[in-house]
Each structure stands twice: as structure tokens, then as C-alpha cells.
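Need C-alpha cells for this chain, all 289 residues.
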Amino acid sequence: FRSRLLTCPFCAFFRTQIPRVRPGRNIADLHAAGFFSRLFRYRLLRFFIHSFLRRLLCVLSLHRRFTAVCFTFIVPVFNNPFYTDIVLDQLKLRTPLVQCSEFNEVNDISYITIDNLEATRKMLRYILNAGRKQIALVNSDPARYTYAKLRLQGYCETLEQAGITVNPLHIVTVPDGNFSTAVSAISALLKTASPPDAIFCASDIMAAAALRACALEGFRVPQDIMVAGFDNIDISVMTTPNITTINQPRHDMGFMACTQLLSMIADPTKLPQRFILDTELIIRESTDF
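Here are the C-alpha cells for all 289 residues:
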């Protein structure tokens, strides 16, 4: 078992700085969701997640090789937050623990994340100010992911504040965030009697899928339908048109998570802290014409 088995952009700071601060010690960067979900179906995913977590707890309790743990993305095993709570509680008993990006509010554990509510409101207000009223949301599963729940909440609240009734048909859930699945779901939405005039997606991958679906169904972007994403990853500038998106402060999140872990290592009695960072609206061709 190696701490670098699973990695993510949020924790690049860990991998470059920790050896200099604590030579010979490891910090586990746990990013199981993205790695496993692309390789295995749901039943196998449950088995491997359980196996992975059991192995981790064994290492923490028997070998004591890890100084601290940073969770960058937690899969609610069996689609049940109860199991996630158990895992976090067990980890918290054994080692300093910080949640980065995705987080669980129930546990008394530090986390660093972004203001998903305000980021969603920021994007929706921009689209509304552009004159679009029939705005669709393409989201991940809000029952599984905190960020998806908050983005759905921000979407509904912003439309209601603008005096627009939320249309349930304009809320599309793509549980796995898969590109092909999203293309099919958005194409079905565009074939309805009242297609949206703007689509806000919970990720840039799904926004790219929205561009593909619009092309297949004969809609022009942004003239007929505006498309916006979230994350500001590389694909947002690889598409034609480029994707308007929300930029997450990934480096700052990794830096703050690392700093928090180091302070907890130095002072085990340190109380949990929670940081919510701001985001930036990046306007590009998919909404600007």
C-alpha cells in the first residue's frame, strides 16, 4: 500500500512539499472515487471501496506509517451516508484527518471546500442577466454528493428569487457524470416540447456533453442555447466554443489542507477548522456572443 497510489490535482501540494517537511513520513491522499468508478461497475465498486478502506484502517492501526490523512473525495458506500460516517469516525480516531473539496458536515472533522451555493448563484445571475429564463440544470446525484446537493439548492433558490418557477423537467441528473450518458440525457431534454434556452452543468465534462447534444439536435451555442460548466478544467478551453465555467481555487485548497494537517500533527489537541473558499466566474464563448 502506497500513499501515492491514488492522486488528484487538489493534493499536488502534498506530494511536492511533505517530504521536505517530514522526511520519511507519508500522508495518504485518498481519491478512490474517480479511479474506481471508471473501472468497475457498481457492485464491484462497493467491494473494492470496502476492501480499500479496510486495508487503509489496517495500515493505520497496525503499522502507523501515516502521519495524517487527506480525503479529497469520499464515495458514500452503498449510496448511504451512514457508511461514510463510520469510515470518517474510524479514521479520526487513528490519525489527523482533513477533508478537501467534497466533505461530510455531520462529523466533527476539518474541511476545506468552496462556496458551492454562491458559485451557483453567481453563474445563474449572469445567465439571467443575459436574458435567458428557461435555464436547465445538469447535475450529479444530490443524494450522494454534497456539492451536487448545494448546487441544486443554489439553482432553485436563484430562480425563485428571480420570480421563475422551477421546471422539474429542466433538472437532469447524471449520477456518474459520464460524457456519453450526459449527451443522451441532454439530447432527450432538447427534444421536449419546451427546450431550455440555457444549460448550466455541474462539471465541464457535462458541459462538453451539452455542446455535443446541442450540435446533434441542431441548436446553436450560444445563439439558441447558452451552455455553462463548472471546475475550469482543461476541456473547457478545448471545445468549440470554449466553455463558460466556474474556476475552483485548487492550489489554494491543497495548500490550506496541507497547512491544516501539519498544524494538527504539531498540535493533536487542535480543534477542527472549516474553510469555505470563493470561486471565480470565467466567461467564454459558450455564453458570450
